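Sat 14:20. Reprocessing the chain from the morning session after the first attempt stalled halfway. Input below, unchanged.
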Amino acid sequence: MKRIAAVLGPTNTGKTHYAIERMLAHRTGVIGLPLRLLAREVYDKIVAIRGPSVVALVTGEERIVPERTQYWVCTVEAMPTGNGADFVAIDEIQLCADPERGHVFTDRLLHARGLHETLFLGAETMRPAISALVPGAEFIRRDRFSQLVYAGSKKVSRMPPRSAIVGFSVENLYAMAELLRRQKGGAAVVMGALSPRTRNAQVELYQNGDVDVLVATDAIGMGLNLDIRHVAFSGLRKFDGRKMRDLWPNELAQIAGRAGRHTSDGSFGVTGEAPTLDDQVAEAIVEHRFAPVRKLMWRNSALEFGTAERLIASLEERTDDEWLARAREADDVQALKALVARPEIAARLGDARAVRLLWDVCNIPDFRGISHAEHADLLGRIFEFLHETRRVPDDWLARQVKRIDRVQGDIDTLSKRLAYIRTWTYVAQRKGWVDDESHWRGATRAVEDRLSDALHTALTQRFVDRRTSMLLRRLKQRESLVAEVNDQGEVTVEGQVLGRIEGFRFRMDETATPDEAKTLQQAAMAALRPEFHLRADRMYNAPDTEFDLTEQGGLMWGDQAVGKLVKGDDPMKPVAEAFVDEEAAGGEVVQKVQRRLQHFIDRRVAAQFEPLLAMSRDEAITGLARGVAFQLLENFGVVPRGEIADDIKALDQDARALLRKHGVRFGQYTIFLPLLLKPAPTRLRLVMWGLWQGLDSFPDSPPPGLVTIPTVEGAPAGHATMAGYRVSGARSIRIDMLERLADLLRGEDSRGGFEANPDMLSISGLTLEQFADLMGGLGYKAEPGERVKVKAAPEAAKTEEVATEEAAQGESTPTEVAVEPADTKEAQSAEEVSVRPDSEAEAAEPEMEVFYTFTWAPRGRGAQRPRRADGPPQGKRGKPQGGKPKSKGGKRPPRDDKPKTYSAKPEKSGKVDPDNPFAVLAALKDKS
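Finished this time. Tokens:
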């Protein structure tokens, strides 16, 4: 006796499991499933029970058919008909109402029967339709094993463990997965378009706990059995192939029902931008109450293949059954009409065999999802091959497959290639379409496997942070996390790098999310504390040579920043502040590091400023001299003379002697200690001065060895003095070299005017133009002039060279000295000139040079006339002006204040060479 039964009820009622048990109770059986993924899942279950030798898997792109096949696991579209199986089952029978695929399920409902038993599995909403269309059907009600509750809206960051977020577009899925990677360590991605291999690999990430959230399309509603406790909808609208529409309540229930497996309760809700569910809809889902299905999609299956027109007419045939509605035009019908309209295709449709072949070709799904025209082009090419040669050529098929067989690219690229290879996998599965079916099935399957693995890797790399997921899994399992620190300072847990120790601070990996950071900190704490104690001990016993001070006040131990200087109560006593992660290292380490750094900076100050500190401690210095010493101490050993001019003037010789004993030099422009102008004290002085002034950033110290440097624009007031320089125009000159220059200027006639001699230029290391600007900054007026250049005599050149060497033997070597090249060639004879062309003779005219005359012309009150370092200004009225002898009668000879020009050029001979026309012309010119 034939049994036809409809096993109806909500999800999680064990309907599919019941069907498998019933099929295995028969000798042969066929079960049709809605998804390729679900077919593979059921196939694996039956193989585990009965073995692979008696179980077949047939889908559009996969065909595993052993010789002794007893049980067929198929997609509904690929179910074999007329094979006389004892048992037939159709799962998710409510898809009869689906606008796109419903006509296939309706056809199976009307015609698929087992010899002994037929089962229809699905929702309770199908009871009236099955009762009307399948007379005598037995109905079995299955109740849900667990409760399903509505949980409302939840943020993604608060998604409970073992959740599935369901979206209806690839963009939405990717956005959710990206967000979950940052907040939860990642997500597995499941879509209907994935190959079974990729889908299984992604599900394994979720099932084994590597990730706690699954992001999926509505494909999970079609019977996929996963350990899901909560389902959250990230959207409530989907594209059904023609337009965007709201999901029906029964569709929402089908997906939400995936929450809760067997006796474990589940919940559902919304997340992201999805609106909250209407109360009535939510209540209907919880209580499984939905309006019954009133219309099933139907398409005539009794097709006529006499001609293409008759085939199309049979496909468009209507029905009068009140329960059936003609399905909308599917992709295969659209492709058929497009190809029949092409003359080259129509010419080949001369018999029923050709028409049937064309229809078989049109059944190739548009896996690629491209335009109908492009899909029709591909189908037309395949039809032409099959019509002409009865086979798809191997070389042509090989080129198509090779073009796809590349595993490089991003997720979208790999997904497209997977969709493309499905077309050729489908072609290879069709019996008689290729010469070597086993070869092409294996070849296309191998390419699909490689692309599937590459896609799984790409999905995992993009959407899963393995380190975070591992930590979350271990914490969930309440296992202890053992952290380690390697030689490079990297902190690792189970081989995953959490961050790095820099000095005495733990730097978290930048990829860590705020939620993850706390977990990482806790995991690393056990390894950090003993490591910090060991480092503190090594640092405390390290010599001062391992420490250094940066120009911004940073304290370095080797190549690691361990602290900085901050302002103290005394300019000469900066305070060291340690960089220590106190929470991880503890207060003892903080104190030890701080003490060691303070010892270092105290010794550095004592060593670099020893003359200044010794002077401040000398009890013999009293009175006004102690006041000068205190001001030097406050100003780190360098004070412009103008700031303490009255105090310096009031010092007697004994007081000056006491200060000179400690290295103080009383310069015309600056009072300073020359030893403190060396590079190391200068660098430290700038840092301590910057701290005392409260500067946010400290100007860099000048390069060592330069007599003058470009004046720093925008530098804080006093910076040049602390750097050991005095601003003078566009350049600043080192204060000790300025005093040497002042000594040279003292012997010059500053009223009548003087020129810069080689010694002055050598000391400053400047060109004549730069020296003129420098003198302007010192209060002198520079008047330029032009004259015939006088050739330097060999003795003069030698003297200049000796002077340059003597200047270079000072404390530092000028690096910006401009030396006028000496003309060592002797004058050309008149005979040589006479044979030159006219142009060369013109070029031999006297060479001109620019010179400057300097006179004292102060621009303000602060300008100082050249004076002896400790004496009154030169040229003061009523006092001697110099050592020039007076004439008889006590009067000085009259002064000629005009600049004089001297020349070392030999006097011209009175003789004129009559054979030299240029010499004759010159003589005539002189006479005139």
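Residues 368 and 416 are 7 Å apart (CA to CA).
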